Amino acid sequence: MASKGVNKMKQKYEKIFQDFTFPSGVEVKNRIMVAPMTHYSSDDSGEVSERELAYYKERTGGVGTFITACAYVIKGGKGFPGQFSIDDDKFLPGLKKLAQTIQSNGTKAIIQIYHGGRQSPAELLPDQQPVSASAVAADREGAIVPRDMTEDEINQTIQAFGDATRRAIEAGFDGVEIHGANTYLLQQFFSPHSNRREDQWGGSLANRMKFPIEIVDSVKRAVKEYAKKPFIVGYRISPEEGSNPGIQLEDTLHFVDKLADQGLDYLHVSVNHFWNGSFREKDKTESRIIKIHEKIGNRTPVVGVGSLHTPDEVVEALETGVPFIALGRELLMEPKWMEKVQAGQEDEIRKTLSRHAQEELVIPDPLWDRLMNVKGWLPVED
Predict the structure, then answer these.
(1) Does the pLDDT at position 184 exceed 80?
(2) Active site residue 184
(3) Would you state the pLDDT for residue 335?
(4) pLDDT, tens only, 318-347
């Protein structure tokens, strides 16, 4: 009887466990990705640390794909304390360990590559000066005014993303995700708030798309030159921003149409809730993820994310036709989320974070301290 119950459970959640082949040819065993989450736990030098390797190891195996925390491609783009680097070959040994740790039991390892732009804290940068598309501060109290990037710096950064991709290939990763979301540098070039340039890199919508598209080209050239087997290239995007002037959904639909022509393996849409419509235009209530999927899903697979906690909620989202769901907070609280669903034990999945569970959940101290102090991001219990 117990076996029949488990079989029924597997049928109920069959969509979660379907395999998938990306356009590049990489095959994954199921439709769940671990969303990229900053963990503040690398060494100050940018080296991957043992404590973060343990954190990754605890959460791999069940999921089909694991996207790492973001790695900075150039020293002037470091965005967080305890962030690891992919800006130099000297980091390859640690990056190889990270890829191998994630790949245990058939999980694919994707490293997210990144530049913080004007969001980079000055104290973490070699010259204490963040850069961006233009000398416009972020729309928040106390934000530092960045320096606008020179033409040479723009070209160096484009090359740095290609160099980072070459290192990811040499380290044994299965792919890279280009971080073009969450108000970091690539989004800053696309945004009319942070990009006030009057040269080829700014002004019109087409010009504001140019820098991120050039980054994609640089990454794809590196894959073509260095990869000896199929290699995933994904892109993460935020469909709107709150600043005025700011990115609107209509701009993003033009942008994703352009991105879908670049031969990407997936487009990862960064939102707080899978089902929410526009927060800028209240009359546009359709899910932004579904809207993007309807626009480009026949050309580029879309990854959905946002406040999907239970396997039933994940299946409901997958039934829209969006082929992948990324889970973040869920894997922090329940590292064995996938294994419990597969075993018919979904009622045993943790839905809150106990203040006494740090060791059991293998969460490094820097990340744990932040989880305990950021209100509302995770349900915490005593």
Answers:
(1) yes
(2) yes
(3) 97
(4) 999 999 999 999 999 999 999 999 999 999
Helix (H) or strand (E) segment spanning residue 168: helix 151-171
> What was the pLDDT predicted at 282?
86
Q: Are 357 and 332 in contact (CB under 8 A)?
A: no
Spatial separation of the C-alpha atoms in residues 222 and 161, rounded to whole Å: 9
Q: How many CB atoms lie within 10 A of CB 27?
A: 12
Alpha carbon distance 251, 209 (integer Å): 10
Contact 28, 108 (CB under 8 A): yes
- Tens digit of pLDDT for each residue in 30-80? 999 999 999 999 999 999 999 999 999 999 999 999 999 999 999 999 999
Contact partners, residue 189, CB within 8 Å, separation at least 6: 133, 195, 201, 202, 208, 210, 211, 212
| Cα gap 161→102, rounded to integer Å | 22
pLDDT at 1 over 50: no
Q: Is 152 exposed, middle or buried (0-12, 13-18, 19+ CB in 10 A)?
A: exposed
Using only C-alpha atoms, what is the Rg of the chain? 20
DSSP letter for 123, please. Answer: G
Spatial contact of 329 and 367, defined as CB atoms under 8 Å apart: no
**pLDDT per residue over 101-142, tens digit each?**
999 899 999 999 999 999 999 999 999 999 999 999 999 999
Instruction: Report how far apart, in Å, the C-alpha atoms of 303 and of each of 31, 136, 293, 324, 325 are.
Output: 9, 31, 9, 5, 6
Which candidate in 13, 184, 235, 266 is catalytic?
A: 184
Which run of H or of E encompasses 76?
none
Give yes or no for a cis peptide into 245 (omega within 30° of 0): yes
Checking if the pLDDT of 262 tops 50, the result is yes
Give which of 117, 99, 64 is closest to 303, Cα–Cα. 64
374: Cα separation from own chain's centroid: 20
Are 255 and 237 in contact, with CB atoms under 8 Å apart? yes
Cα–Cα distance, 217 to 209 (Å, whole number): 12
What pLDDT does 6 receive?
52
Phi, psi of 365 (to 5 degrees): -55, -50
Walk me through the domains of the chain, giving residue ranges and CATH numbers: 2-381 (3.20.20.70)
* Best CA proximity match to 335, nearest among 107, 84, 132: 107
Beta bridge partners of 71: 113
Q: Give me the mean pLDDT over the 349-354 stretch.
A: 94
Q: Residue 27 forms beta bridges with which residues? A: 21
